[in-house]
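Lecture 7 notes: from sequence to structure.
We start with the chain below.
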Amino acid sequence: MSMTLSLTTEERAFTAEVRDFVRAKLPDHIRARCAKGLAPHTPDLRIWQRLLQERGWGAPSWKMEHGGTGWSLRQRLLFQRELDLAPAPSPHTLNIGLVGPVIAEFGTKAQQDFFLPKLLRLDIAFCQGFSEPGAGSDLAAVRTSAVRDGDDYVVQGQKIWTSFATESDWIFCLVRTDPNAAKPQLGISFLLVDMATPGVTVRPIRTIDSQQHVNEVFFDQVRVPAANLVGDENKGWDYAKYLLVNERVGIARTGRARERLRRARALAAEVMQDGRSLIEAASWRRRIAELEAQLVALEMTELRLASTPAGDAKAMDTLGAILKLRGSEILQSCVETLAEVAGLSGLRDGMKGNEPDDIPDWGATAGSSYFYSRAQSIFGGTSEIQRNIIAKASLGLR
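Predicted structure tokens for the same chain:
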């Protein structure tokens, strides 16, 4: 059974509407890049975000009073699934899925009026300043400090693994505002920092997929207006948890995994080995069937989440952890399968013009996509963290 079999008449009409919109509006060059498994460039994301916003779909998870759709969680999952299957980019993850909901829920009226319209149209792009060299999975260990000085905070410290920092205008940060708090979680605040502020330095990190998605960000006596504090001082841990639950729900990406698996199946029918296509081998058919079964089970878990009462925070958190854990594992397996279909050609990405003529275009990027997919079980909270969340809930320790 798949999610599609459980749709109502209205939901079938909705998914068809989304599918038709994407087919008609998504620029071909953006679709082609997504099909290769590559992250869209920020200018392309800006084009797509504005097309979605013109349709009224730029912020699926936001309330209508803030410019969102007011959709139910089930509608949002269906929408995301159709984008992934296309494949098409999601609404800007950092703007729409992460910092936007925090500002909408906890920000001041002035912050909402200034930031939310700009986030919707991607007039400004945010990156996320959470992880530090000594604070990855354990965010309570952040040491980047923000000391109040009149109408400003003076920020000193370093962030790492900051995705798309070189292409971003602002960064939302967890900073330590009370180093003497009784618990580390109680001394953290949530601060918005303009990347153009003097003292902010970005240093790209080249990763194993030959790309520069992630970066180090340094803050050297950076003066940030106190008006950029979101919510109350020292309550940033609560806002970060709110953000991370949203991130984990959306990060399952069953549609993305299904699209990668569908592509692997189709290409396995074209790639020949020992005089026959790969898909003719029982081992390949079994592998794809097993992944298909795992995907169906994960889709059913998504439906469970969509049916969970909004006020049941513990159930939402636990199901979100399950979706993050299994979604990461299954997506990695699907991307790995596609890389294995590509074979040796998947290892030749980035040869700077020396590629043999017989390497298919999709094969040359399969290896790069596989390497990048290994981060799927790290960002948004490692798989180990998700297992702890699930275990505590199972044992009644929360």
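Points to note: The beta strands are 126-129, 145-149, 152-159, 170-176, 188-194, 200-205, 214-225, 229-230, 272-273, 276-277. The two ends are 32 Å apart (CA to CA).
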